[in-house]
Write a structure and sequence with these properties.
The protein is of the alpha+beta class. 39% of the residues lie in helices and 21% in strands. The chain folds into three domains: 217 residues, Rossmann fold; 76 residues, Uridine Diphospho-n-acetylenolpyruvylglucosamine Reductase, domain 3; 98 residues, no CATH class. β2, α3 and β3 form a beta-alpha-beta unit. The structure holds adenosine-5'-triphosphate (ATP).
Length: 442
């Protein structure tokens, strides 16, 4: 299909009125994508904007921005430039850190409900497939980049994913299009560049359709991955349907591969990082060992615990700074170092409250309505509160007296002393403290 028609189709499939953003690096692919999309917008009018992220990592970066400005002004497309600070010390390599900063900038600019178009093409997909194979990935990694998917309530699309780089180069040549070359794309110490310049041309010299074949394999792996997700959903349904609390006995009825699949799938459903293969093996071996041994296996971005026969998948616990406590009147927003907690608390008789919020220390006793003074530890056991939740509890004290117990992550009062009531919370930020950040994906 001719390139322009491909983009026209993609735009026609975008609901009228929905804003389309083109992520414009200034390279050949995204400069061409913007040019084609601007032309398509004349036939299928949609609000169109370009977004350039200035990473500030190399002297050439100002030149990228200048090119983007020139191109957008020629096409009459509004350009937004986002400067980012790349955290080189984040332990994921410079490329990974730049990518994370770029996606954070995309999320800042592009509003939920809008579409973001990226210019990756078929040869990028072939490289991604090979990189995944060289890491020993399963079908999910081999599937590479999705042509279209939901991302943080936005629509992420790659309308050029089925198009060969050579086709894009030819089209840009015919149009006399200008673009900027990123010198870091020639650095063959980077794996992707080594594949691009060294390996793929060699493969293509023997198998001219190598790029096409590899990207077809990626698409087939994507289909297999979708089928596995359906299988995992069926298993999850059979085991009660709660991805955060899987029954260990039910898990043990599954074959090893299905058990691994289900745990990974549940992590994804919960927005948690999937466990690396070896961590997952450790976890499942501990489950298989049986008994009440306290199982706790953590990996970056998530952890798993077993309690009362269930495997709990959790965001990693965030702890409060040592010695932290806060004065609170019970109705103003309660802000703790983990975020804002949307709860309110008051005296039943309406008298003003002067409270101090402190982490639970142990040994607290509460006077419960109709039950007298009760030991908090026993009370939490009776309520079936898991140990890791007990560790994060805050106690509201009036003077020295504990009057309420708060789970700041669930934003819920677990116990209230006689004379105290939970009130409706002040309006505030929608993020519950401790909720995991959405993971960037493919
Ligand atoms: N600095 C940036 N600002 C905005 N979008 C970007 C930026 N860098 C990359 N992108 C988007 O992500 C896609 C993939 O990035 P990648 O680094 O593989 O491409 P590139 O070689 O820099 O640029 P191009 O794809 O335009 O030739 C780009 O096509 C573009 O849509």
């Amino acid at each position: 299909m001719p390139l322009q028609r491909r983009i026209d189709h993609a735009l026609a499939a975008t609901p009228p009125g929905r804003c389309v953003w083109v992520a414009l690096s200034g390279g050949l692919d995204s400069s061409l994508l913007l040019t084609l999309t601007a032309a398509a917008c004349r036939r299928h009018p949609r609000p169109l904007r370009a977004l350039h992220v200035h990473h500030g990592l190399q002297p050439a970066a100002d030149g990228f921005e200048r090119h983007c400005r020139r191109l957008c002004s020629r096409l009459g497309v509004p350009l937004f430039v986002e400067g980012v600070a790349v955290d080189r010390a984040a332990g994921q390599g410079l490329e990974g850190a730049a990518r994370e900063a770029r996606y954070a900038a995309f999320a800042r600019r592009v509003t939920p409900g809008e579409s973001l178009w990226l210019a990756q093409h078929r040869d990028d997909q072939a490289e991604t497939f090979l990189l995944a194979a060289l890491r020993g990935s399963g079908v999910r990694g081999l599937a590479g980049m999705a042509a279209c998917r939901e991302w943080r309530e936005r629509r992420l699309e790659r309308p050029l994913l089925g198009v060969a780089r050579s086709t894009l180069e030819a089209e840009a040549g015919c149009r006399g299009l200008a673009w900027v070359a990123d010198p870091s794309n020639d650095d063959q110490s980077l794996d992707r560049n080594f594949l691009r310049h060294g390996v793929l041309p060699l493969l293509a010299s023997r198998w001219p359709h190598a790029g096409d074949a590899l990207s077809r394999s990626a698409a087939l792996a994507g289909e297999a991955d979708a089928l596995l997700a359906e299988l995992a959903d069926l298993d999850l349904e059979r085991l009660g349907g709660d991805p955060a609390r899987l029954p260990v006995a039910g898990l043990e009825t599954l074959s090893g591969p299905r058990r691994r699949l289900l745990v990974r799938h549940c992590c994804a459903r919960l927005g948690l990082a999937r466990p690396p293969a070896r961590r997952l093996e450790t976890l499942l071996a501990q489950l298989g060992a049986g008994g009440d041994a306290e199982v706790r296996v953590a990996w970056p971005g998530a952890e798993a615990r077993v309690w009362r026969g269930r495997l709990h998948l959790l965001a990693p616990a965030e702890s409060l700074p040592a010695g932290w406590q806060a004065e609170w009147d019970g109705h103003s927003p309660l802000v703790i170092p983990l975020g804002e907690v949307r709860v309110a608390l008051g005296r039943a008789d309406g008298a003003p409250a002067r409270l101090r919020m402190v982490p639970r220390q142990g040994g607290e006793r509460l006077r419960l309505p109709g039950r007298g003074r009760r030991d908090l530890k026993r009370l939490l056991q009776e309520l079936g509160v898991p140990p890791w939740v007990r560790e994060r509890l805050l106690v509201a004290r009036a003077g020295d007296t504990p009057v309420a117990v708060l789970d700041p992550v669930e934003e819920a009062w677990l116990a209230l002393a006689e004379g105290w009531i939970s009130r409706s919370a002040p309006a505030g930020s929608p993020r519950p403290a401790g909720s995991p950040p959405p993971a960037p994906g493919r």
